[in-house]
Structures are given as C-alpha cells and as structure tokens.
Amino acid sequence: MAQIRKMDAQVEVKSQADKLYDIFKGKAYLMPKICPDKILNLEILQGDWNSVGAVKLWTFLPGTSESLKEEVEAIDERNRSITFRVIDGEILKYYDSFKSSVQVTSLGAKGSLVTWSVEFVKSDARIPDPDKYLQFCAVVAKDIDAYLLKNA
C-alpha cells in the first residue's frame, strides 16, 4: 500500500499576517501580477476566490511550465490556513495524490511566518520528493511580501 508522505517549508516575511493571508485566501488573482516570472496565469473555474469548493487553474514555472487544477478543501480563518487538493495536472503524473496547505502565523512586529505543507503519495518509489514545489511556494511567499511592502 502506498504511503502518505508529508513535508514542510517555512519562510519568515516582514508583512503582517492578515495582509499575507488575504492574498492567499481571496486575492490569489493578483499573483500573476505579483510574480509574473513564476505564475503565468490563474483563473477561477468554479466558485469564487475565497470559498471552500473553489476550483482554480494555475499555469506556473517551478522550473518548467506546468499547469494544475486545485480545489480549495478547507479554510481556517482563526489559524489563517488554507488546504488545497490537486485534482488535475502534470503533478499527478508523479504523485497519486497531492495536497498542500499554507498557514500564516503572526510574529508580531517582526512580521509573519509562512508555512507550506504538502501531503503526497508517490506513483512510483523512484519519484523524487516534491522539494521543487515547496521551494517554489517559499519564493512566491517572498514575492508577495515584497509586493505588500512596496504597496503599503
């Protein structure tokens, strides 16, 4: 039986947690503008930008151009976290299932801590861990931070 694996990546940023979380939750449509060299396009296919059940289609560059459809599976306002489940895309050629979540924690006057977590099941034991996706998400969080600080 395939084993569910988990990995995390964290990045400290200077922006306030609520502002960062707001981008992830309800203003993801800004991401192609915020980091056009990484996120080429993002569209909503079902629902709206900030609700459970929403389906989004991403075209992005974690090295090579990829696309994926994700469904928002859970939103936890109190803990500023969102869970996404990949339902289609190149990533599912390598992983039988792939979930990601982002949580933004306030560090007070120092800024925020962004934690990305992934849960995945490899389609083959020889498939590498999804490090490139976690690193991609960490870099995107830094880009969002720079955008928020510039446009404060």
UniProtKB/TrEMBL annotation:
<dbReference type="InterPro" id="IPR051761">
    <property type="entry name" value="MLP-like_ligand-binding"/>
</dbReference>
<protein>
    <recommendedName>
        <fullName>Bet v I/Major latex protein domain-containing protein</fullName>
    </recommendedName>
</protein>
<feature type="domain" description="Bet v I/Major latex protein">
    <location>
        <begin position="2"/>
        <end position="151"/>
    </location>
</feature>
<dbReference type="GO" id="GO:0006952">
    <property type="term" value="P:defense response"/>
</dbReference>
<dbReference type="InterPro" id="IPR023393">
    <property type="entry name" value="START-like_dom_sf"/>
</dbReference>
<dbReference type="Pfam" id="PF00407">
    <property type="entry name" value="Bet_v_1"/>
</dbReference>
<dbReference type="InterPro" id="IPR000916">
    <property type="entry name" value="Bet_v_I/MLP"/>
</dbReference>
